[in-house]
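Collaborator request, handled under Task 6.
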Amino acid sequence: MKKITLLLVFVAASLAVSAQIPMGTKYVGGSVGFNSSKSTAKNAEAVTSYSLSPEVGYFFMENMAAGLRLGINGSSQKDNFSSTAFGVGAYVRKFWNASDNLHIFVGLGVDYAAGTVKDETPINGPDQKLNTFGAGLDLGLWYHLSERWSLVGRIGTLGFSSTSNPDNDQVGSTDFGLNVNTLGNPFSIGVYYSF
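Structure tokens returned to the collaborator:
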């Protein structure tokens, strides 16, 4: 028990004395993603997905940042279907210092995306338009590689999203969930340049 207490005191002291991210710091960056998965079923076709998410941010207070992000993503499966979506989001993040180079953050964000699913199979019918609204809390890490370059990763999300079709009120879904893990899906990582 003594060792755990000493460890907690050490961690708390290191959080209190490590470097802050100063007010006025700006950053640009984002993340890219690619995934391909294939079922082992006979004659299965691979599903390929991609994402691009550039963003900009500004520390309006010491260890407090606000940012805007764009989202472009899509997926396809040979002759069966393809989807594309474009979105925009905003967030506010609070940072705590774990060391001189590592910061832990919690962020509150909202996102909106509009997209189209083109289904080539006769079973599922015509193309569909989809609108998605989401909000959530993110847990993440910001690691300084150098004075200007950093890696930023989200390691957990508690969120809500709602998807609807503006042309068909029978199509839609609502999701609420918690995803927390270590270096697995849905972990995402990006690169930032600060100035």
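The cover message to the collaborator said: "The two ends are 44 Å apart (CA to CA). Confidence is low (pLDDT under 50) at residues 3-18. Please let us know whether this matches your experimental observations."
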